[in-house]
Amino acid sequence: MNASAAIVSESSEVRERHWVAAARDGDPEAFRSLVQTYQDRLFTFLLRMVRHHEEAEDLAQEAFVRAWRHLDSYDPRWTFRTWLFSIARHLALNALRRPRATILSIDSGGDETHPAPVLASPNGSPADQAAIREQKRRLARALEDLTPRAAMIFTLFYQEEMSIAEIAQTVGMSSGAVKVALHRVRETLKTRMRPA
Amino acid sequence: MECSDAKQRMEDLLDGDLDQSGRRALEQHVAQCEPCARQRDELFAIEQWARGLQPVSPGARFADRVMARVEAEQPVYETSTAGIEFIAAIFLAAAIAPMFLGANDALYDGVVAAAGSIGGLFGSVVSEVRDAGGEAVAGVAALWNWADQRQGPLSPTWMTLLAVAAVLAMVVFNLVQARKAVQRA
A29, A31, A79, A35: which is closest to A57 by C-alpha? Predict the structure, then answer.
């Protein structure tokens, strides 16, 4: 992370600590700021686990409400993010244990769900570009087929950019188990990205 | 370096766990090993794709829906027995104060008789107050029993001050708790 990014990141952390403190004192607008900060990321985390848009939204709402309800018990030694995602993970795992309706597939066509990542070479031939698009589709489909646990770890590592230690704290696993799970995710994706 | 070691080091690199010397050794191996070079390219392509994924929005009004639920949350009343404590505090104050403030014997006898006739209710209230009100209530109750026997090292003036101070402290505590509950509502 360069110096400017580090300054921005530190400012964000200070701002977030202020919001958390204010929310703990009962300020709902401070809590709204936290919701707006984390809503997309938390929703995506849950969506990848439960693979149902409405259910993921319900769970995301419930996670925020529970966070509000239990702010008194929030331990500042954790980051707010770790605590919030831990609540969400607990809700998702409980939901997955219940009998569930048919899971709808998350759109893997590479549009709103997975906007084009930078895999394509800008100077590639049309055939190269087509091959890369196909590769992206296979990866997106592979992501949908990950188990909830694997999808959870994938999202925390790649989307949230959590360290192995922070992931371990969030999901209640050892760091070693997180690394093994992450390696398995990469193996799965590597296998699935190759043409059949 | 064996290919199995190189594969492990690639994973460590992606996990952020590979130091400079490990990186150099890995690069040297990959430069000379085509299968490992292909493996590296695949892993790096996955990394690039994964880190480029964007979060999905739950919708424009999501925060509003969350806040509607947050604002509809009922306050958690921290001391559910605060009302009982308050009543018990008044009762105890009424029972103790005349005794120490030199009220006439008839008034004192009347209060004691009332306390006795209420009997179990008084006992259960004091018990409830003790559970919820802590040390102050236990101290007042003990002082009440001791003062009833009118024995002890303290003069009536000190006994009065102690009893009133203890009761006032409990009353203030309960008023603060009640106020917090009202504010949350």
Answer: A35
Residue A68 CB neighbour total at 10 angstroms: 21
Tell me how crowded residue A85 is: count the other CB atoms within 10 A of its CB: 27
CB contact (8 A) between residue A60 and residue B70: no
In angstroms, the CA B158 to CA B140 distance is: 14
Find the closest chain A residue to B16 by CA distance: A163
Tokens representing residue A102 in the block = 């048919």
Q: Whole-prediction pTM value? A: 0.66
pLDDT digits 0-9 by tens, B63-115: 999 999 998 885 544 444 556 666 666 666 655 555 554 445 555 555 556 65
Q: What are A153's two structure tokens?
A: 């770890």
- Which chain B residues have any C-beta within 8 angstroms of a chain A C-beta? 11, 14-17, 39, 42-43, 45-46, 48-59, 62-63, 65-67, 69-71, 73, 76, 183-184
Q: Which domains does chain A have, with CATH numbers?
A: 1-98 (1.10.1740.10), 125-196 (1.10.10.10)
Instruction: Judge whether A115 is closer than 8 Å to chain B, CB to CB.
Output: yes
**Is A40 in contact with B57 (Cβ distance < 8 A)?**
yes
Nearest-CA distance B130 → chain A (Å): 25
Give A-chain residues touching B53 at CB under 8 angstroms. Answer: 114-115, 117, 158-159
Phi then psi for residue A116, to 5 deg, are: -55, 115
Q: Is the distance from CB of A174 to CB of A56 less than 8 angstroms? A: no
Q: Find out whether A174 and A168 touch, Cβ atoms under 8 Å.
A: yes
ipTM of the shown complex? 0.81
Of residues B40, B34, B31, the one with CA closest to residue B12: B40
What residue in B sits closest to A114 (Cα-Cα)? B53
